[in-house]
Amino acid sequence: MDVPAYFDEVDGGFMPTRSAVSAWSAEQVVGPALTGLLARELEREHATDGFVPVRLTVDLFSPARLDHTTTPTVRVRDGRRIRVADVSVVQNGVVAARASAVLLQPSQQPPGELWHRAREPKPPSLKVAPTSELPQVPLFSSGADEESWSTTPTDHENAERKRTWQNPIRVVTGEELTPFARAAIVGEAASMMTNWGDKGIGFINTDMTLALSRMPEGYEIGVEADSHLSEHGLAVGVTTLFDRHGSFGSAMVTSVSNAGRQISNAQLDVAVTAHM
Asked: What is the pTM of this model?
């Protein structure tokens, strides 16, 4: 069975597919495609010798087009316990996005008790969201009712806390997702979860920082909004990432107002299935 992907490998690089088209513009690559591709390249080149990626920061400072893309990487630091690497998205000789990763060597937990988040995000039941190896249409929930899952964003046309549960498409055609790439794709939903209000989405994120205490387990990942702060058209949003075994990381985005091209809730209904 053909599984949709954001990119095809072509001529030593990548060509965006129709699944990579952004809801903001038919000529731009959607954010999750870029975060997934950048994570893939950093992991393949630098997650070696026992090092594990724990932090990914992606800067989305220029529209990436539906053009041939290369992803040169460089290792910035290579220590005994800490490794740092960078990667860029290059199109027609121009850098459209970049990312950096911190990779660490796992070790023994220190002693002592620490404060933990009192309330853990709750995934949908297996009856609502059966586990599948194949990508699924994203589920959404809002407010205090954690059983209000549906595939239709207009069901959540409110100013309440948002959450999503996703089994994403592939980064590259014919290639299974690694847990890190999967987290990078779904983590970009931090923008939608924190910037989505009762009139749709009027902020566009300029970055995404993913931080992981462990790799996700299974095929599905949840993202729940923790906070949205905004003033004068500038916003910061923080989310918690979780799977069926509990919370495992966070994702943060900074965003800028794009009110002139606000995405309505009805447009979201179309956009969420366009990448499947």
From this structure: 0.95
